[in-house]
């Protein structure tokens, strides 16, 4: 890795003429070059911007333009999409292709690193020098550019952070996160790197639960990190045995995990599933550390150096069991590992500052033991007849009914009540022939029976799919806007 990443650094500074502070878009699947490019950038101070390979031309265009990227690294699959938008990106000077074939107008990354010198002197980066830009998922609008410093990498060395996974040199760690997501930089690169553990990588072009299960049986993987949907798919697969021979520890985060899924995973695999919470802005903010008591449905406790509190809209700390915003203290000192600011967006950067805190825009409560309980994004919380309802609570209740494959709960206008709870539901195929009115009544009754009755969805609509971001997160804001007749 030292040899190859030094060569990569030389390719960037010499063959590509990139300088410290230039931006490079990194859009690669799970191939070894993803690691080389990331570390090559860290060595040279080139700011890298990971992006998912699921992007289409317009997504790539948006990212290249707003970031004024000077270079891009990608594969054959996305090169034509890049070429189709490159004329509209005047800053883009270098296109690097990771492939066994050549392509006109592109530099061949693999042959360049073969011929590059392995001698390279790393820049002397300071903790607060910029390292990477992570685009947010765009769940609530256009993706924002969360800029991180080298302190983000440093945070993985902090003893308190290493308690999350407690990786050892003997561990074989498999992080299934999309390479475009901040979790991949943490789970595929920084965490195992700082612990000296083995990284397991699988190309996995599609999330086929059968392949994931076979892989966990075949290879000596001891720890696994993946989005809740991955564990969900495995559980829904009805495989005869999920007793993986070497798996000891599992972590998930990035979206809500249902408490019953957490329990079901434990029952079927014999391994505990720990939950973490984070954002492109924060990396992992809180989590259930290895060995800590798991409270199903909770996102665990704040991980130092972050001081996380539940705050009101003015930044006042709220007592336990009171709904509020998840805030991370930034005054008097901004903690290492938290994003620096939104690039080119001082208004948005100022908007998320709330008193002494960075307001994550997520609603939650904290209990007496310091465990956080996610309610939903601030914009998604429903205010029905004076009751504040988090979509996650209703979606969790619906998920317990066998008819529900997936649901999204949003606010909907009502002439009498102002706002009511509306559920968009994707049915499991076995229930698609059922009388719809009858099924709606049954589902409403079910929600009333498993959670506080005022939360039940007064409106229900069955849909074939839910609107999602390219990383698979439900765009509740899109559904809500449709309900209120907005664009
Ligand atoms: N454990 C978790 N449980 C529930 N939600 C989670 C969890 N972890 C993360 N999230 C959600 O994911 C969000 C972070 O996702 P990300 O940084 O990818 O961008 P986004 O907020 O989805 O997109 P955008 O900011 O562009 O709308 C959090 O703010 C939170 O809403």
Automatic annotation (TrEMBL):
A GO-annotated cellular component: mitochondrial matrix
Localization, UniProt: Mitochondrion
The alphabetized UniProt keywords are:
ATP-binding, Fatty acid metabolism, Ligase, Lipid metabolism, Magnesium, Metal-binding, Mitochondrion, Nucleotide-binding, Transit peptide
Name the domain of life this protein comes from: Eukaryota
Q: Name one GO biological process term.
A: fatty acid biosynthetic process
User: What region holds the AMP-dependent synthetase/ligase domain?
Assistant: 3-329
PROSITE patterns assigned: AMP_BINDING
Instruction: Tell me which EC number(s) this protein carries.
Output: 6.2.1.2
Listed cofactors = Mg(2+); Mn(2+)
Q: InterPro entries, alphabetically?
A: AMP-bd_C, AMP-bd_C_sf, AMP-binding_CS, AMP-dep_synth/lig_dom, ANL_N_sf, Mitochondrial_ACSM
Q: Which reaction does it catalyse?
A: a medium-chain fatty acid + ATP + CoA = a medium-chain fatty acyl-CoA + AMP + diphosphate
Domain named AMP-binding enzyme C-terminal: residues? 393-473
Mainly resides where?
mitochondrion
Q: Which GO terms describe its molecular function?
A: ATP binding; fatty-acyl-CoA synthase activity; medium-chain fatty acid-CoA ligase activity; metal ion binding
Instruction: State the family it belongs to.
Output: Belongs to the ATP-dependent AMP-binding enzyme family.
State what protein this is by name.
medium-chain acyl-CoA ligase
Q: Which organism is it from?
A: Cervus elaphus hippelaphus (European red deer)
